[in-house]
Design a protein that fits this description.
Elements (H helix, E strand, L loop, with lengths): L1 H9 L20 H13 L19 E2 L4 H13 L4 E3 L16 E3 L5 H13 L4 E7 L2 H16 L3 E8 L5 H13 L4 E5 L2 H13 L6 E4 L5 H4 L3 H6 L4 E5 L7 H7 L11 H9 L1 E2 L10 H6 L3 E2 L20 H22 L21 H9 L2 E3 L5 E3 L9 E9 L5 E10 L7 E3 L26 E5 L8 E5 L4 E3 L7 E3 L4 E3 L6 E3 L1 E3 L6 H26 L4 H4 L3 H16 L1 H4 L5 H35 L14 H24 L2 E9 L2 E7 L3 H24 L10 H24 L3 H32 L6 H8 L1
Parallel strand pairs: 1-2, 2-3, 4-5, 4-6, 6-7, 7-8, 9-10, 22-24
Antiparallel strand pairs: 8-13, 11-12, 13-14, 14-15, 16-17, 18-19, 20-21, 23-24
Subcellular location: Cell membrane
GO molecular function, one term: G protein-coupled receptor activity
Keywords: Cell membrane, G-protein coupled receptor, Glycoprotein, Membrane, Receptor, Signal, Transducer, Transmembrane, Transmembrane helix
């Protein structure tokens, strides 16, 4: 305060040619002494008389103080009666914001309610959800506990336990609280206690070696001052504290180093301070006039006045860490000075009072100065903006401190962050790399009732327990954890699937049988190889077309059968690749028509053999049908029926590309939907009917005598064909995704290969390896 007044008095810009003075009164943290000081100041006499002013010429303009709220409350009630300006630098009680009860009270310290919000934000920042709470049995503690509990509920945290610390020391209460602390899983304990209540609790906590807890306290207590024992400091190592914002006042350090008893000869404390600081006796100090010889005999020396304050350890003579000095006292004095400056510069007719009048700086009413103080707005010497809101409170900034105890026994509060109530959404700022937790590790302590659920698990509340205690249950298949509520899972859209952590729905993989994969390319190669093999047989039959084995059983039908088989082998190429509506229609129609053509030719060849042998039998009833050339009409008629069925199928309910979401987990299978199941069954049923007739006729004619009779081979081929497609049905129904298409392609290839091998390979064997059997002489000789 003295330094601030010296700055103001030496300033040419602030109150020029006006000197401010001051009166100091020590209330000793006592409400009664605070009221006595107020009476003395207001009346002008040490033995004050209420409602009388005996020294109007030396009436103080405003009161800066008091520090404790319990002293400021009665003081503010009395000063409020006459609207006498009062600016406190340490009273944070929320009640003092009530301008109806305390109309002339202002403060440069923050409302302690903000500390609860700051601590709640701090707890949320470190993800501490299971928190113990101890509070003093007074308005400060109960109010703070209530507000903090509400903030914890809003942030999703829980109070593990809350204990009241009695104002009068109670050993039983302290033992009970220590027992609760030791049993609780909560690693964090928030303290809303005054320092005089907390000391005995900390002594017992250190005695029981409770060093695995993180203590978070308000600005109402200071470890360095009140906890000198090393055991207590060890217990509190790594703890966090909310404190008034620290800062530097330009020139203040130099001022503190420059003070000297010769500069302040009338200061009753200066010589005593000097003697304590340098362990010497100041000559002429009345306090030691009678005892200094004895002190000198014990090794104490005389003070010379040449001692230097900058040689004292800063732990003893601190010139940097003056939180109340920087934040509040300095600002409070300058607020009064700036208000007086505005009052002095008031222009008559433009003043703030009735009819634009101004107040006289040398003779004004207290409420007039109060008006200016309420509306003050200036930057202090550190460049910070200072003003008062509607509740008479200055801008609120808080420091977050970490208490650190070092191996060499030294200790200090370390600044690790700040809380600025004016930055909505970004109030808290923390520097994690500066924090040193108890034990010297950098890992943030965990304080939870139940460990966080793994990815993809939701919280399930336990009956009768708080919401912070829960079980973890996995999200069902196809669900992700709700990002806004970890107690429920959300089902992914049909075209999406959860990622491995079940945190996000990702687009499902598109699956179809493609040429790029081994299965698709292998089937395509097999298809082409068999097609070339069929074409080679066809070429061989063309070359040997005049030989008996080719002529036998209608060589034109053999050519047609080979061509149809070649197209059958090419059909799988349409089944490979990404399906679309056109491809789906083409693949099913080609498959149905070419296989019907193939089976129709086999049926025609079988009937041809039967009719030829019937013609040689005089008693056969089929002899009359030989002239009608029935086999020639079988192929087009039977194939045309299938074509008509396919046309009806395409016009009524054509096959189409379908996105099957349920075939495989997490995969979208693009497949061909058959459209009308009835018509699809008709197409397949007709093919089955032709195959059954062909097998029956071939089976009946298998023993007909002939050198090149192929009915027995047709019988085998149709048995293979039927076996493949009968086996195909359960295999098709038991597979999913692209494997279904692969099974269908395999059935097409294997059934077509069965026909090719069983019908044509015996003939190729004779043509290539036994040409002597493929001659008229061999046939004639065999018949003979």
């Amino acid at each position: 305060m003295v330094f601030a007044l010296m700055e103001i008095n030496s300033s040419n810009d602030l109150l020029p040619n006006i000197t401010l003075g001051f009166n100091l009164y020590d209330t000793c943290y006592n409400e009664v002494r605070s009221l006595m000081g107020a009476t003395w100041i207001l009346s002008g006499k040490k033995k004050g008389v209420s409602n009388f002013n005996c020294d109007k010429d030396h009436m103080p303009l405003a009161i800066v103080g008091d520090m404790p709220s319990k002293a400021s409350v009665p003081l503010a009630r009395i000063l409020g009666l006459t609207r006498y300006p009062q600016i406190s630098y340490g009273s944070g009680l929320p009640l003092l914001s009530d301008k109806i009860q305390f109309p002339s009270f202002l403060r440069t310290i923050h409302n302690v309610d903000y500390e609860w919000f700051a601590i709640a934000q701090l707890v949320r920042f470190f993800n501490w959800t299971w928190v113990g709470m101890i509070y003093s049995d007074n308005d400060f503690g109960r109010s703070g506990a209530q507000l903090f509990t509400r903030e914890m509920d809003i942030n999703g945290g829980c109070i593990a336990f809350q204990e009241t610390l009695p104002l009068i020391r109670s050993t039983l209460s302290i033992y009970r609280i220590i027992g609760v602390i030791k049993k609780s899983r909560a690693a964090l304990i928030v303290l809303f206690c005054t320092i005089e209540n907390l000391a005995s609790l900390m002594e017992q906590a250190s005695f029981h070696n409770i060093t695995d807890k993180v203590w978070v306290g308000t600005s109402g207590w200071s470890i360095t001052t009140y906890f000198p024992r090393t055991e207590i400091l060890t217990t509190l190592n790594g703890s966090l504290a909310i404190a008034v914002q620290n800062g530097k006042i330009p020139g203040f350090k130099e001022f503190l180093y420059s003070i000297h008893p010769s500069i302040f000869p009338d200061d009753p404390y200066m010589k005593t301070f000097w003697e304590n600081a340098f362990h010497c006796v100041w000559p002429g100090n009345d306090a030691y006039n009678n005892t200094s010889p004895a002190l000198l005999k014990n090794g104490t020396v005389w003070c010379t006045g040449k001692e230097r304050l900058d040689s004292i350890n800063t732990n003893i003579y601190e010139v940097y860490d003056f939180k109340y000095t920087y934040k509040v006292v300095h600002n409070a004095v300058f607020a009064v000075a700036h208000s007086l400056h505005q009052m002095k510069n008031c222009v008559p007719g433009k003043g703030p009072f009735k009819n634009g009048s101004c107040a006289d700086i040398y003779n004004h009413q207290p409420w007039q100065l109060l008006h200016y103080i309420r509306n003050i707005d200036f930057n202090n010497t550190a460049g910070k903006r200072i003003y008062f809101d509607e509740n008479g409170e200055a801008p609120m900034f808080l420091d977050i401190l970490n208490w650190q105890l070092f191996p060499n026994g030294s200790n200090q509060y370390v600044y690790i962050g700040s809380y600025d109530a004016g930055l909505k959404g970004k109030e808290l700022s923390i520097q994690l790399n500066k924090i040193l937790w108890n034990g010297g590790h950098g890992q943030v302590p965990v304080s939870v009732c139940s460990d966080p659920c793994p990815k993809g698990y939701r919280r399930a509340a336990l009956q009768g327990q708080k919401i912070c205690c829960f079980d973890c249950l996995p999200c069902s298949e196809g669900e992700i954890l709700n990002p806004f509520d970890d107690s429920e899972c959300l089902k992914c859209p049909e075209d999406k699937w959860p990622d491995s952590r079940k945190e996000d729905c990702l687009p499902k993989l598109i699956q179809f049988l493609s040429y790029d994969e081994a299965l698709g390319s292998s089937l395509a190669c097999i298809s082409i190889v068999f097609c070339l093999l069929t074409f080679s047989v066809f070429c061989l039959f063309i070359i040997k077309r005049k030989t008996p084995i080719v002529k036998a059983n209608n060589r034109e039908l053999s050519y047609l059968l080979l061509l149809s088989l070649k197209f059958d082998f090419l059909c799988p190429l349409v089944f490979i690749g990404r399906p679309n509506n056109l491809i789906c229609m083409i693949r099913q129609v080609l498959f149905a028509v070419f296989f019907s053509l193939c089976i129709s030719v086999i049926l025609a060849k079988t009937i041809t053999v039967v009719m030829i042998f019937s013609a040689t039998n005089p008693d056969s009833n089929l002899k009359t049908l030989v002239g009608f050339r029935i086999p020639v009409y079988i192929v087009p008629v039977c194939t045309m029926i299938q074509i008509i069925l396919c046309i009806i199928w395409l016009t009524r309910a054509a096959p189409f590309a379908d996105f099957n979401m349920a075939a495989e987990i997490g995969i979208i299978v693009i497949e061909c939907n058959g459209g009308s199941r009835v018509l699809f069954a008709c197409v397949l049923g007709y093919m089955g009917l032709l195959a059954t007739i062909s097998l029956s006729v071939a089976f009946l004619a298998r023993k007909l005598p002939d050198t090149f009779n192929e009915t027995k081979f047709i019988t085998f081929s149709m048995l293979v064909f039927a076996s493949v497609w009968v086996t195909f049905i359960p295999a098709y129904l038991s597979t999913k995704g692209k494997q279904t298409v692969a099974v269908e392609i395999f059935a097409i290839l294997s059934s077509s290969a069965g026909l090719l091998v069983c019908i044509f390979f015996p003939k190729c064997y004779i043509i290539l390896l036994h040409p002597e059997m493929n001659s008229r002489e061999y046939i004639t000789r065999k018949k003979c």
